[in-house]
Each structure stands twice: as C-alpha cells, then as structure tokens.
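[step 3/7] fold_predict: job queued, chain A
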Amino acid sequence: MNIKKCTVFFLSLTLLNLYCAPIFAADNDKKIIIQITLDQFKADYLKWYRPAFSGGLKRVLENGTVISEGLVDHALTNSFPGHLSLSSGMYPAQHGFPANEWIIETEDGWGFSDGISDKTTWIAGDKERTSVSPNNILVPTIADWVKSNDNGAKAIALSSGTAISLAYGGKKA
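[step 4/7] structure written:
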C-alpha cells in the first residue's frame, strides 16, 4: 500500500471516528450503516492497530460486523466491479460493470469505456476525469436503499479515487 493510500485510509478512519462518536452517544432511534472496504488491506492490520482505536470506530469494530476473510463468487476481481458488488450485493453481470474498462463501439469507432465517464456531468476537484457519474450503474447500492427509505438520511462515500466513491455512493448520495 503506497503512502497516499495509507494517508487517505488513516485520515478517513480519523474522520469516521470523530463523526461516529456523537452518533452513537446520542439517544435516538436512528441507525447507522458504515462500510469500510480496503483493496489489498490485510485483516491483520485491524488486529495490530485495534488498541489505538477509540470512540466511534472502536465501537463499530466491537459491536459491528467485521468480515476479515471474504470470498469472491465470480471469476474476475477487478477493482471497480468488486467494490460495486460489495455495495450493491449483485454480481458484475447484474450491476453492469464487468471490468474496470472494456471495449465498446462508439460513433467514432471502437474505443475503451470505463462505464463512469459521462459527458453530461462534472465532478469538482478531479482533473483527470472531469465528467463521471453513477448513471450507468444498473442496480441500487446500500446508500440508494437507505436514501429511498428515509429522505433525511445521509450517505457519505470516501475514496482515494473518483470511481470507487461512485460505487459506494450510488445514484442518490
């Protein structure tokens, strides 16, 4: 894991810890769903660093569900399709993303598509992909389900890259 990903990971954990502590402390009927997924992150790291966790993140680790050994029931394990499968519960054939990129025929001939490029939208702060959206995702994600059931619900997707945050944020985040 490179330094950028480590920094993003630990910054995300810190923010999550700060965000979760007041939510768990509040006495209300609101529920929280937190999904943390890390590419190539050994489950042992959670064991090694667990004593350093406190507040909300510690409570999530102690009272939540931690899957330290997940199995993939499809042949190809590309990054974006895998994250989208985790956030939607669907196989790549169902959610519409069989790979990170694939060849498609366009008006200009054959070319590569990543499925998230969208000339009608723009994401601020990403200089490499100025037009991406979740519009081609064929199924709802956890964030979409939550937002569909509660208009006041919040969905936050953090990622070191644009594509992965789209997989977790879905269409309604």
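[step 5/7] annotate
Residues 1-70 form one domain.
The chain has two domains: 1-70, 74-138+161-173.
exit 0
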